[in-house]
Amino acid sequence: MADGASLAARQILALLSIVLFHVLALALIVVLLGTPVFTIASAGWGVGQVKLLVLFWMGGAIVLWSIVPRIDRFEEPGPRLDPAEHPRLFELLEQVAHETGQRLPEEVYLVDDVTAFVAPRGGWMGIGSRRVMGIGLPLLCGLTPEELRAVIAHEFGHFAGREMLLGPWIHKARATMLRTVENLEQSEAHFDGSPYLKVLKLPFESYTRGFLRLTQSTSRMQELAADRLAAEVAGTQSLVTALAEIERLAAGYETFGRDWSMPALRCGVHPPLAAGFQEFMHSERVRETLGERATPRKARVHTSPYDSHPPVHARIRALGGQLPETAEADTGMRALELLGDGDAAELELLPFTCGERLARKLEPVDWRDCAERAFRPTWEEFCEGHAVALRELRVSELPALLTDLPRLAASWGLRRGRHGTGAELASIILWRAFALVLVRQGWEFRSQPGEDFELRQGDLTVQPLPLLSALAKNAVPAAAWEAWCTNAGLGEARLWPAAASAA
Fold this sequence. Notes:
The chain has 503 residues and is mainly α.
C-alpha cells in the first residue's frame, strides 16, 4: 500500500513536471518571438535588429516545432499473427489477459528481437490509439511456455491499476523533451556551434536531465509492480528464470546475428534461423560463454541513472526469488511450439529482418551448407584487402606469426576497430586465410551454429580457430606442426596465392 502511494505521488510530481515544462517552453517561445518585435517597435529597423529577429525567431520556431504533439504513425514491426493460424499462442494470451483483468490487444505481431511489449500505438495525444502487442521470435525460441506466460503477464501489468495510467504520458513527455534538445543540438551543429543556440539549449538540457532522473525511479517502481502481478499470475519461479534467461538470450542473439544469421542472409541464403538460434544457445561453447540456462549473468554494478528498468538481480531480489548456482541446460519444450507452423512465421518475418527486396531473393539452405555458400565468400572479401601481405606468408610460418601479433598488426597498419585491437584483427585475418587455403585445396567445409567451423579431408579434421589459438599459445610443438603441414600437403602453401581471387 505504501509502495502504491509512493508511486502515485511520484507520478503526480511527474505530471506537474510535464505541465511545467510546457508552460516554461511556451513562455520562452513568447519571449523569443516577442522580444525582436518589441525592440523594432521601440528602436526601429537596423542591422542589429534584423539579426536579433532572425536569431530569436529561429530559436522560437525550433522550440515550438519540437513541443508540438506528433501523430503516432504506427509501422508494423513484423508480420501480424492470426488467432486462426496460431490458436495455442492466442489461447495463452487470452488466459493471461483474463487473469490480469486486461483486454487482449487488437493486434499481435511477431518481431525480430528478444522482447515482448504491449503498448498503445497510433492516433494523436492518445486519441484514436489502439493497443498492440509484439512478441520476439528469439524470445519464443528460448523461453518455456510458462516463462512466456510470466513475461506476457508482466507486460499486461503495466496497464493494471490506476498508478499505471500516466505511463504513456510520461513516455511521450520524455520523447518531447529529448526531441527539443536534439533539435537544438542539430541546429547548433549546423551553425558551427552558435553560442546563442548553445545558451538556449542549456535550460532544456538541464530540465530534461532532471525529468529523466525523476521518472526513472517512477518507471522502476512500475516495473517492480508489474513483476509482482506477473509472479501472482505465472508463479515467482517462472518469472525469475524468464528474467535471467532473457538477459542470456539478448547477449546470445546479438552474437548469433553478427556471426551467423546476417552473413548468411547477406549472401542470399536462408538457413532455418529459429532452429539455428536454438542450436546456437544449446551449444557447449555458448553455454560456457553465457552461463548455463538458469544462472544469471553478473549483476551490473554501474547502471545508467536514466535506465527505466532495474537491474535483473534487483528485480529477482525484490520478488524474493533465487536462482540455483548451477543448472543443466534445459532442453524441454519451448514457447516456439505455440506458434504451430514456426517455419511459416519465420518466412513472414524475413522481410522485416533483412528487407523485402533481399527476402524475395533468398534461397533456402541447410546450416551445413552455409559454410560454402555464405561464410567462404564473406571471408574471402574480408581477407582480400590484405592479399598483398598474405601472399608473402606461408602456412608453415603461422606459429611464428601468431606469437607476435602486435608486431604483425603494426606492419599491416591495423588499428583498433569493431573487431577489437589491431592484434585481434590480425588473428582473425590469419585464421580465416588459413581456412580458405584448406577450402581451395578441396577440404570439405562445414558449419553448425555455435560450433567451431570444421574442415575435413579424408581422415584429417581441422577446426581453424582452436588450432590457431593453440599455435599462438605454443601448445603445438614445432615438429608436430611441420609434420602436419607436410602430411596435409601445405608445406609450401601460401596464405593467399596469386590465383586466389579467381578461385
